[in-house]
Amino acid sequence: MNETPARLPDIHTVSLAAPLGWLAAGWRDFRAAPLICLAYGVILAGISAGIFLVLYRTGSVSWFFVLLGGFLIIGPMLGMGLYEAARLRAAGQKPTFSGMIWVRSAMRRDQLLLGLLMVFLYFLWTRIAQVIYALSTPRIFREPEDFLTFVLSDPNGHVMVLAGLITGGVVAFCNYSLAVIAAPMLLDRRYDVFMALATSVRSVNRNFFPMVVWAMIITALTGLGIFTAFLGLIIVFPLVGLASWHAYTGLVRQ
Question: Is residue 23 part of a domain?
Answer without folding.
Answer: no
